[in-house]
# Entry
Amino acid sequence: MLILGINDMHDASACLIKDGRLIVAMCEERLQRIKNISSFPHFTIRHIFKKFGLKYSDIDHVAVANKNNDYLNLWNIGADFTVSEWNKLDLNYYYPKIYQNKKIILKKLFPNYKPSKD
# Structure
């Protein structure tokens, strides 16, 4: 059984597990050369598939590390945000989301933000 593990959060990465044993684990920042990159690890997945000669149909299961902060796989905030943007994120996103149970749309908080890499 082959399992592809995906982490699209801080320090994006992917791994391959075969029959319960870790075969390879790799961080996206090694391939994109951006420290702490938070994005979907498509370069890492491609590299793993190429190195082991895999096709998508060879994978039995896909495990994703986190589903609660789905914006991080589209935004590279770990590497791109400034200190003031992190403060704005804490005050206007995390606090209302966690303590007030509000649905906050990040694109409205940062309408001009564009990730350095996707």
User: Anything to note?
Assistant: Helices lie at 29-32, 42-52, 77-80, 83-99, 106-109. The radius of gyration is 16 Å.
